[in-house]
Amino acid sequence: MIEIVFNESACGSLKIAQGYGSGHTVSAPIGCIVHRPNGEELQPDRHTIQKMLEETRQQKQQQTEKAVPLGGKPEDVYALDLSLSTGDISGDLFGEERVENLCQLLVTFPDGRNWVQQCLSNSARNLNAVLERTAKGEEIRVWYSNAPDDLCGLCWFLAELERIPHGSVWLIKMPEWVPQQDGRFIVIHTGWGEVVPEEWHQYITLQKPAPEALFHAAAMEWRDLQKANTPLRASVNGRLYSVPENFYDSFILETIAQFPDKFNESAAIGRMIGKYQIKISDGWVAHRIDSMIKSGLLETVTPADENGPGYRRVLRKTARLTDPKG
Description:
Helix content: 40-55%
Oligomer: single chain
Number of domains: 2
Low-confidence stretches: none
């Protein structure tokens, strides 16, 4: 079974999930996030931290022992990570013009261009391998969600499959929420990249066959999106729409309004994405904040370190933002 995801993080987790719980474990660092109620500033002592870490290790070990392997082979998992919800999609999705476009819209790291080129190169190679294998009759399982990149990726990929003979295609859509085992809480994921290896097997029962009519409908929708070719595509009530570049600006401005006049841009971006769960990247939010700086709504107080992300800087609200009538 060929497994398709539209995110590199999801790809890594899914590969691990295939053998997870059958003697296959993953070593990873463990950290503690401590909640201090009522403004308490005292840090927990060393003994308390060590106890917390040990309890976390034991919980992780228990989860591993109870995990059900998904099955399959890691080499059957392919990431088609193209960030199709942003940028120009009218031409070659893997070409240099697309790289340049994504660098302008999403990249916030000094070596971002290399990352974008690598993602597109990997995706092009993966697509060729998948099309070659499915043309011989191999089945495909596509994991997607309501995230714009996933929905765009699904339409584009099904449009690609419509052009060639292919094996059976199965779809698994991420549910809106998943109950915890104790029944007291639910978990809401924004994408498959947030799913840990021991959880993937529980979604297999959700798979459905993709009817032939869906391939034609997806191809039509993808052509419509290409024709509109707006800078941004958004998911609204689970449907894709071509929207203007400032579509999310009201959420960004509302978040910034909660901060003092001088604030850390990275903190504002994190709060905005965490609160509204809009399923867009931090790079896109940083891109829109750059536009607000250019328009005079914000100004830079302390620039970002040249070796770090561009949004690790201190900004200040200008009078145009705090007093639009002034």
